[in-house]
Each structure stands twice: as C-alpha cells, then as structure tokens.
Amino acid sequence: MDSIISLVLFISIGFFLPGKVTSSVNTSCNSDDLQALERFRREVEKPIDQGWGSNSSDCCKWEGVRCEPVSSRVIALELVHKNLKGKLSDSLFGLDQLRVLNLSRNFFTGALPPQLFYLQYLEVLDLSFNSFSGFFPSLIGIPSLRLTQLYLTSNMLSGSLSIQIGSLSNLIRLDISSNNFSGPLPNAFQNLRKLEQFSASSNNFSGNLPASLSNSPTLSVLNLQKNSLSGPIDINCSAMVNLAVINLGSNQFRGAIPESISTCRKLSIINFSQNNISNQIPDSFKNLKYLSQLSLSKNNISNLSAALSILQHCRNLTSLVLTRNFQNEVMPNDPSLHFKSLSILVIANCRLSGSIPEWLRSCTRLQLIDLSWNSLSGVMPLWFDELKFIFYLDLSCNLLSGNIPTSLTMLQSLISSNVSSEEASIDFPFYIQSMQYNQIRSFRPTLNLSYNLLSGPIWPELGELKMLHVLDLSHNQLSGHILDSLSNMINLETLDLSRNNLCGEIPYSLVKLNFLSKFSVAYNQLTGMIPRVGQFLTFPDSSFEGNRGLCDSLSPPDNWNAKSNEKPDEGGESFIGAPFGFGTITGFVITATVCYIFADLLPPSRTRIRRGGKVTYTKHWRQFAR
Ligand SMILES: *[C@@H]1O[C@H](CO)[C@@H](O)[C@H](O)[C@H]1NC(C)=O
Ligand SMILES: *[C@@H]1O[C@H](CO)[C@@H](O)[C@H](O)[C@H]1NC(C)=O
Ligand SMILES: *[C@@H]1O[C@H](CO)[C@@H](O)[C@H](O)[C@H]1NC(C)=O
Ligand SMILES: *[C@@H]1O[C@H](CO)[C@@H](O)[C@H](O)[C@H]1NC(C)=O
Ligand SMILES: *[C@@H]1O[C@H](CO)[C@@H](O)[C@H](O)[C@H]1NC(C)=O
Ligand SMILES: *[C@@H]1O[C@H](CO)[C@@H](O)[C@H](O)[C@H]1NC(C)=O
Ligand SMILES: *[C@@H]1O[C@H](CO)[C@@H](O)[C@H](O)[C@H]1NC(C)=O
Ligand SMILES: *[C@@H]1O[C@H](CO)[C@@H](O)[C@H](O)[C@H]1NC(C)=O
Ligand SMILES: *[C@@H]1O[C@H](CO)[C@@H](O)[C@H](O)[C@H]1NC(C)=O
Ligand SMILES: *[C@@H]1O[C@H](CO)[C@@H](O)[C@H](O)[C@H]1NC(C)=O
Ligand SMILES: *[C@@H]1O[C@H](CO)[C@@H](O)[C@H](O)[C@H]1NC(C)=O
Ligand SMILES: *[C@@H]1O[C@H](CO)[C@@H](O)[C@H](O)[C@H]1NC(C)=O
C-alpha cells in the first residue's frame, strides 16, 4: 500500500519536475515536446485528465497525442470536446514537428496566436467550435506552406478577412463560417491555387463576389450563405470548371441568374434562395446534367411554366424548392411535364391559381410535396396513391373543394414502413418551416389539407395510414362522425380536426394513441363526453371548445359544487363514472361536467378571410416561415 502511494507521489513529482526524474521512467517522447505539452497542460483551465501525464512521461502515450514512430516527435495533437478553457499561449509552438492540431469543440478564448501559422510542418489546423475572438492574425513573412486544411468555424472572430489569407497557398479546405467577419471578401483567391472548398457562411461579409473567387478553377464547394453579399451572381463558369456546390442563400444578390451558368457543367447543388433574383430561369439550365438539388425560394423569379419546362430536362433533379416566387401565376398543367427523379417538390406561398396539376402523377419518385399557401382550386385528384413513395403531402391553405379522395387512404409509404426506406435519402441540409433537417427522412410523415373547402366525410380507411405522424384536416367543411378507426393510426402525434362540421362523439378508442401530443376538435358540432384518459388528460380546453354538446368532467365551472369531480380512472376503459357506450348513463354524468357551448360567444379566430372567392391572408406565422 505504502509503496503504491510513494509510487504515485514519485510519478506526480516526476510530472511536475520532469528535468529531475525523467531518466528513471520510460521517456520515449522528445523532451522538448514533453515540456511544451506539460506547459500546455498547466495553462489550460480544465486540466486534461485521462492519461495526461498522470502515469507516464512518455507523452506519446497520452490521449490525443500522436508521435512519429522513428523520431518519437509529436506530430498530432487532437483534443476534441474535452471542456478545455483558457487562451492558447506560445507553449504549443514548441511542438515544432506538429502536422495536425485539432482543438475543436472546447472553450478556448482570446485571439488566434499568429505563431500557429508558422509551425512549418502544420497541415491541418482545426480550432472550430471555440470562442476565439479578435481579428484574423496578420501573416507576414512565410507562414506554413503545408497548411491544407484550416477550420475556424463557430468562433467569434471579427473584422475583415485579411488578404494575407492568400499566402496560405496550399489550402485545400478553408472554413470560417459562423463567425462575425465583415467587410468585403478579399480578392486573394488567385493565390489559393489548390482551394477546393470554401465556406464563409453565417458572417456579415458584404460587397460583391471578388473576381478571383468567381474565377477559381479549383473550387468545387462554395458556401457563402447568410451574409450581406450583393451585386450580380457573376460567376465565370468558363473558369470555374470544378464547381459542384454553390450556396449563396440569404444574401442580397440581385439581377438574373446568368445564362452562362450552364457552363459550370459539374454543378449538382445550387442554392440561391432568399436573395433578390429576378427574371426567368435561363434556358441553359437544361444542360446541367448533374443538377440534383435546386433551391430558389424567396426571390422574385417569374414564369413558372418556363421554369418547369426547362428544369424537367435536368434528369437527375431530385429536390426542387421554388417557394415564394412566381406571384399570382397559374400552376402549369402541361401533362407532358415529367420529372423522372424528383423526390422533393416545394412550390409554396406563390399565390398560384389553377388546380393540382396532372403532371405530378408521372413523378413517381416523389416523397414530399408542398404546394401550400397558394390559391389552387377544384377537387383533389384521385391518383395520389400512384405516388407510392409519398409520405409528406402539404396542400394546406388553398381553395380545394369536394371530398377527400379515398386514394389518400392508400398511400403506400404511409401504410407500411418498408416502402420508402428503400429510397436513398437526400442528405443535404434542407429547409422548410424555419427548421433545418439533414435528411428528407427527418420530416415527419404528414398529411396536411387544412384551410381548404373540403367537404364530405373523414374516411374510416384513413386509419390504415399507420405510419402517419401528422394529420391536419382543420378549417374545412368536413362532416359526419369521427370514426373509431382513426385510432389505428398508432404513430399519430398531431390530429387536428378543428373548425369543421363534424358531429357525434369523440371515439373513446382515440385514447390508444400514445404518441398524440397535439389534438384539436374545436369548433365542430360534437356531443358527448371527452375521454379524459391517457394523453387526453393533457389536452387543453381549447382543444375542445366551440362544440355545443361536448362535455368535460375534468373542469367544472368555478361555482360548481364539485362533489362528483372524481379523479379519472386512468387504467380503466371508462369515462369518469360511466363506462363508454352506455349512452343512457351520460345524462347522469353531464350533471357533473361542463359543456363546451361557447362557440357562438367567442369571436371567430380565423387567420384567413375569404372575400368573394379571393383569399386574403392575415398575419400568420407560416407566412414568415416560408
Ligand atoms: C519503454 O518504451 C519502449 C517503447 O514504447 C518499450 O519497448 C519498452 O519496453 C519500455 N520500457 C519500459 C521500462 O517500460
Ligand atoms: C495509469 O496506468 C495504469 C496501468 O497502465 C492504468 O490502469 C491507469 O488507467 C492509468 N491511469 C491513468 C489516469 O491513465
Ligand atoms: C477534428 O477532430 C474531430 C473529432 O475527431 C473530427 O470530427 C474532425 O474532422 C477533425 N478535424 C479535422 C480537420 O480533421
Ligand atoms: C461583430 O462585429 C461588429 C463590428 O464589425 C461589432 O460591432 C459587433 O459587436 C460584433 N458582434 C459580436 C457578437 O461579436
Ligand atoms: C453587417 O454589416 C453591415 C454593413 O456592411 C452593417 O450595416 C450591419 O449592421 C452588419 N450586421 C451585423 C449583424 O453585424
Ligand atoms: C472567364 O474565364 C475565362 C477562362 O478562364 C477567361 O478567359 C475569361 O477572361 C473570364 N472572363 C471574365 C469576365 O473574367
Ligand atoms: C438554402 O439557403 C437558405 C438560405 O440561406 C437556407 O435556409 C437553406 O437551408 C438552404 N438550403 C439548402 C438545401 O442548403
Ligand atoms: C430587389 O431588387 C429590386 C430591383 O430589381 C429593388 O427595387 C428592390 O428594392 C430590391 N429588394 C431588396 C429587398 O433588396
Ligand atoms: C444521376 O444520378 C445517378 C444516381 O445518383 C448517378 O449514378 C448518375 O451518375 C447521375 N448522372 C448524372 C449525369 O449526374
Ligand atoms: C420583381 O421583378 C419585377 C420585374 O421582373 C419588378 O418589376 C419588381 O419590382 C420586382 N419585385 C421586387 C419585390 O423586387
Ligand atoms: C414564359 O416563358 C415562355 C418561354 O420562354 C414564353 O413563351 C412566355 O411568354 C413566358 N410567359 C410570360 C408570362 O412571360
Ligand atoms: C414489405 O415489403 C415486402 C417486399 O417488398 C413485402 O413482401 C411485405 O409485405 C412488406 N411488408 C409490409 C408490412 O407491407
């Protein structure tokens, strides 16, 4: 026991006084490296535990340290996500053979020490996801010419990006996104002759694209989204022969998309959304054979008809997002339009008139359709079940009338889980409704037909859609009963049937829907008791209000002598006091309940006002989300 204690003592003394005792333990790492690392260890505020010096002065064995086997020199230091705090002092500069420094996802603060860029063998520098602040260091003389990857993502660096960045002439990947850089992008890219990926998204860069950037022959990924860049999108595709991904979303670019863009033959992902781009989509888009994802939402592009007939020639197009353009145009209905590979189609909030187009029928790979917030009218087509991969259909806020087609109860990928899982998912960040998803599969299976003029019954067969998570049929003119079979939709999280003309009782079996977290049947003509069991205990009164004959045993009026206000029987298959199905007992129970009769007392809270067939939208969050 004593010997262990003295050994531990001995080793810890050895650690703090390396010069005196290193000879007595196995030291295979270089002593300069060891000293540098020990200084670093003392300087960081949260000491690095796991194996750091505690046992061994062979720093090559410390966690996150890698040595070159022959020379035993430290060549890599990778301490990622270790809760390290403090400033980077000059201690690390002693590691003069370092090739990889990865301190990503810690809490380092202070300025970026310029010396890091003079570690002459450094190839990879990753300081992303820390709290470094101040300006990009000035690089005079010859910084590490070997640096190929520089990641400064998600820090608090500010000021302009120095033109000296061009002296890091071997950079292949440069990511300075999510900082507070401002001013123009430096015209330094002619010196970055190997740069393949450049991301400066989520900063406050302004001004035009520098010519050296828009003529870079090596660049394949350019991500400048969420800045204040302006001017025309004048990329020179004769020069940018390797460009495959361009994301200029959320800037202030204006003018037309250049006709010459098709010369960038390798383009496969284009995001120009949230700019001020106008005119039509250039005819030359036809030639973008690799184009798979195109997002142009929130611009001022016109002529949807031309856009679709051009884009159908991009045979690899899987995702097309055109929201908020083409204001007040007519939905093209040319039956010969055909999108062979299209999996995602979003043309929302364009105030398009016309009807649900027939050509959708031939786009058999579709998984997600969002045509919400238009003025599409007529009846819903009968062929939706032919689109066997559809799992997300949003046609809300239109003027669709007639019955819900029964074909919607036969959507294969909402019936069984194994249909669309065979589809390759699209794994590019994709944006709808203020949330960012990484995969199309992150969208919850949804059927949203709310805010239309649909009438007729809610088909009992909808219950077949076992994979459905969101069913919103609110704000229509649906009638008839809510049927028991809806409780077969075992994955349902949201069920909104509010503002229709439904009558009868809320089926007790709905309490089986364990995932249900949002439920509303408000403003119908329902009667009977609210099944206050399971999830139904959590729904607010507003879920039920506006029904003349709907009674709740949970919330009697304040002045009620609540003698029979018992706790609900959570385990049992019964209403409070009365088993479901025994209608005759209901009369007795009603005396202990409050009924939702205030439909006519409250002002209507509709967010949409119809005037003579025209639809006007008042303030509504969805308007901003799209
Ligand atoms: C010292 O380290 C070397 C290389 O890792 C190893 O071969 C040797 O056995 C070690 N010696 C002792 C005494 O631990
Ligand atoms: C010290 O070394 C022993 C034996 O090699 C090992 O079991 C222990 O986990 C090490 N302690 C630390 C803190 O690394
Ligand atoms: C830094 O380490 C993290 C975690 O291992 C890794 O994900 C990241 O790619 C590394 N950075 C570089 C530039 O290799
Ligand atoms: C960002 O930089 C501007 C000056 O360019 C400064 O006024 C602002 O405080 C900075 N914001 C943060 C969060 O550092
Ligand atoms: C971005 O920069 C512009 C000037 O180019 C400035 O007016 C604006 O306030 C800045 N925005 C932020 C968020 O720093
Ligand atoms: C576009 O790139 C080509 C090929 O590099 C070059 O010859 C031409 O001058 C460039 N055009 C402009 C306007 O920069
Ligand atoms: C396109 O850009 C917009 C605006 O910056 C962004 O919100 C969206 O996520 C981007 N879409 C893709 C697919 O990257
Ligand atoms: C968009 O461009 C038009 C001119 O093409 C201009 O009138 C308008 O102010 C711009 N809008 C924004 C938000 O910059
Ligand atoms: C189209 O996509 C398929 C499958 O992703 C791919 O194999 C093919 O090379 C692509 N064709 C073009 C011209 O991009
Ligand atoms: C949209 O573009 C048209 C010309 O195509 C222009 O008249 C109009 O002002 C633009 N609207 C906005 C909001 O920029
Ligand atoms: C839309 O584009 C087509 C083809 O370029 C053209 O014939 C048609 O006139 C355009 N429509 C409008 C309204 O500009
Ligand atoms: C899953 O797919 C297989 C073949 O594709 C089919 O035989 C099976 O019936 C499907 N399962 C369900 C639950 O639909």
Compact description:
The chain is mainly beta and 626 residues long. The chain contains seven helices and 41 strands.
What does this structure look like?
With 626 residues, the chain is mainly beta. It has a domain of 132 residues: Leucine-rich repeat, LRR (right-handed beta-alpha superhelix), CATH 3.80.10. The chain is built from seven helices and 41 strands. The N and C termini lie far apart (69 Å). The N terminus and C terminus are likely disordered. Bound molecules: 2-acetamido-2-deoxy-beta-D-glucopyranose (12 copies). One 2-acetamido-2-deoxy-beta-D-glucopyranose (NAG) binds next to loops. Belongs to the RLP family. Keywords: Cell membrane, Glycoprotein, Leucine-rich repeat, Membrane, Receptor, Repeat, Signal, Transmembrane, Transmembrane helix. It is found in: Cell membrane.
